Amino acid sequence: MTAKPHVLFDPALDLELRREVDVSPQLVWRAWTEPELLMKWFTPAPWRTTACELDLRPGGRFRTRMEGPEGEVHDSTGCVLALVPGSYLLFTDALGPGFRPLGSGFMTASVEITPTDGGTLYVARAVHKDAEDKARHEAMGFHQGWSTAFDQLVAMVRSL
Amino acid sequence: MTAKPHVLFDPALDLELRREVDVSPQLVWRAWTEPELLMKWFTPAPWRTTACELDLRPGGRFRTRMEGPEGEVHDSTGCVLALVPGSYLLFTDALGPGFRPLGSGFMTASVEITPTDGGTLYVARAVHKDAEDKARHEAMGFHQGWSTAFDQLVAMVRSL
């Protein structure tokens, strides 16, 4: 795939984090797509990402396992829908590996990485079924959580 | 997209119709992807397909409305996941247009159209969440239904 697919974004249903940073697009892409790097930043502390599998092709497995300070475990396996190497990744938890339906689905998420003069424009989006799921995601801490995770990503790539 | 995506097929969970026919791959592709043609064969009689919208790109809308002899209506909107023009179409009812999660999902379906010496090898597959959904689909009449619909497709394209 060399072009972004047709993804709809509706501010009434969906959420977005938009950040500009002075790190290279290449490093942001690596942080998202190399599991050993993703595990270092993906979950706001004190949660940790303790496993990650990413088969970087349409239909490929995207699994993350997150563990909380009280022993909580969120182990989630979704599906890569599309990608443009270096700049765009789309995945969902409505399908499992090989596009197999899971019978549920909370979000489809996209990560868009665009070069700027000084670094990277980073746009991460979560697309939901309805306004209720959007509100639920906000209440779960979307803005703070995705922003803090991205801060961790930036700090991590600076250390590479 | 120029290559088929990574789709898993598990005989314990999934269903397949495989047919060889002496009509051209081009006509089979047209019958599947031109809504006015699809409406002529998609539903085994006495059911009818009374509406179809197909936006033939990843993320595009795939809607079909079927009506039964007693006034039953099944109106379903899903999402195109991938395609190779002329030979491969993948779609799901787990996502709506633009890859938006629907919160449910019964199947991901693929249609594969391969040229043979005398015509076309047609392979249509339904990929399910689990063996229970496979059994439900069989009980709904998958084999008879998809086979009869394909007979209608062949008869229709012969008349073009």
UniProtKB/TrEMBL annotation, chains A, B:
InterPro entries: ASHA1/2-like_C, START-like_dom_sf. CDD domains: SRPBCC_CalC_Aha1-like_3. Residues 22-157 form the Activator of Hsp90 ATPase homologue 1/2-like C-terminal domain. It comes from the Bacteria. Pfam families: AHSA1 (PF08327). Belongs to the AHA1 family. This is SRPBCC family protein. It comes from Ancylobacter mangrovi. The lineage of its organism: Bacteria, Pseudomonadati, Pseudomonadota, Alphaproteobacteria, Hyphomicrobiales.
